[in-house]
Amino acid sequence: MKKLIYTFLFSAVMLAPAAFSQTEPLPRGFSPEELLWLSQNKTVPGAESSGITDPPPLSVRAMAEWEEMQAMVITWRSYKPILAQIVQAAKEEVRVVIVNSDLATCQSELTGYGVDWQSGNVEFMQAPSNSVWIRDYGANPIYLNGVDSLALVDWIYNRPRPLDDIIPDAVGDYFGLPIYSTTVAPYDLTHPGGNNFSDGMGTNFSSKLILDENGPLNQWGTSNHTEEGVDSIMERFYGIDRYVKFTNLPYDGIHHIDMHMKLLNETTLLVGEYPENLPDRVQIEANIQYLLDNFTTPFGTPYSVVRIPMPPENGQYPSGGAPLRTYVNSFIVNKTVLVPRYEEQYDTTAMRIWHEAMPGYNIVGINCNSIIDAGGAIHCIVKEVGVQDPLLIQHQPLEDITGINPPAYEVNALIRHRNGIAGATLFYTTDTAAAYQSLDMTFAEPDSNRWSSSIPQQPEGSTVYYYIHAVANSGKQVVRPLVAPEGYFDFYIYPATAAGETAPPALRMDAIFPNPASAITCIPVSSTVGGTATLEIRDVLGRTVETVFTGNLSAGESKYFFNAGRLFPGVYAVTLVTSSGMVSQKVIVKQ
């Protein structure tokens, strides 16, 4: 590992006072002093490299964020009210390790913010730092040989902050973990953690910043890596055999994808949705289409994309590269999800979407108004450490059943543990208030670690809820989702006609009037079942341009209204989605 030679580092910082001491707190992007420093082509001070600079000797697997964690690491430096809320929520799930340079002050401030750090699960690691953005400079967990042993990977931090850049070594020492460092040619690689998502199955997501910062014009003095060279390093150190790279957003100042998208599991991507007139929206939509057109999930099926409206600030969205508020810059820590909040009128919809996307999880909202202007939120200031002994369950959730109702619904899961699997069980129900029924899973395919079972046929119109439980030969037990049985996978069995075609639920949208529309317009809706619903206006590309209603739809007839005068002229689809179905109708907007 790189040595923690603090005297060397402090000397380096003293030689560069303009770059490291004038702006406090440092933003997630570059401070003005750092930009000046780099424009003068000065050498970036850093730690002496003496770590494991060769690739791991065994094949490796990058950990996904929804996998089981033993700890979360933060740096106690700025935005402390937000950090305190994070500590308070996360310590119920994992050990929280707080990097600090003044232990007494740190503990006193935690007490002042109402955090009971003495009751357990809060630990302190003393080390100097430059900034709070540990997502970008922290080490990334990997497992050698898939599930055998935990290690960390440390990339070169893409900021001239030498104290931050050695914190991964201190964390590795603290947990007794080896750190593999991409710091020496031919494996030198610059990469911020906020521009990195892994699905735990060999697929990685980043913006093309990864290519810009390692190509011929990079400012870090590293090797000139082609895209193939970057992919090779990521495969050797991080276990990535498929690397999805999205085009940079034209007005995004840092190009970290965690500001506008997030993987929720192996098959689902949560993506922020911005209004039509926002410059970066066009590229976000193009990136989603690029993913859907060119890639499938690791199971060979199309990705599911969940959209979440991003909130304005004072009724407006900033332009010209100013940071945008985000609900996707969140953190999944075992059974809890930490989600940014800003204003109740927008937060209500966002929290509903999070609850629907992550059933059974404890969704905790944290006010991020004070940090967002610095270019980040929750995900940016936390870092995960995986468990030492993972029992891995990977699963493709079953999709809704349309057409003919089959006699059974096959459930498959890839289950692994370093000591082998003693057994697995599938639990299912059509009523979460009742007891789950259980089915033994069989070891169907040893070469791929696939376990299988089949849920027997259920009545049409039913929603089936299920989860998977596994036991290792060592006795360790895990469920997937981690929140089961309170949380679950689910699929709906649509009623079918005699011809075997899907019959729509008892949901109707009468003729929208006036149509064509240019001002206040009425949408008449009739439902015999009621329930949670979302009524949206979508453009010809299927993009939501306005959410007319979201909430509980009453059974019976209802009328909803929107102002067509706020929309550009053209053809739109008015779409009503409920738990029991979807109806849609075209409306023409004129000048």
**How far is it from the N-terminal to the C-terminal residue, by CA?**
65 Å
Which structural class should the secondary elements be placed in?
alpha+beta
Q: Could you estimate the helical fraction of the residues in percent? A: 10-25%
**Strand content range:** 25-35%
Q: What is the count of helical runs? A: 12
CATH topology of the largest domain: L-arginine/glycine Amidinotransferase, Chain A
Shape type: globular
The largest pleated sheet is described as: 5 strands, antiparallel
Secondary-structure arrangement, i.e. CATH architecture of the largest domain: 5-stranded Propeller
Q: For this structure, what is the CATH homologous superfamily of the largest domain?
A: L-arginine/glycine Amidinotransferase, Chain A
Given as residue ranges, the uncertain stretches (5+ residues, pLDDT < 50) are 1-21, 498-504
Written overview of the protein:
The protein is α+β, with helices and mostly antiparallel strands. The protein has three domains: 6-264 and 374-386, L-arginine/glycine Amidinotransferase, Chain A (5-stranded Propeller); 392-492, Immunoglobulins (Immunoglobulin-like, Sandwich), CATH 2.60.40; 507-589, Sandwich (Immunoglobulin-like). The strands form nine sheets. Strands 20, 21, 24, 25 and 26 form a five-stranded antiparallel beta sheet that branches. Strand 15, helix 12 (344-357) and strand 16 form a beta-alpha-beta unit. It starts with 5 loop residues before the first helix and ends with a strand.
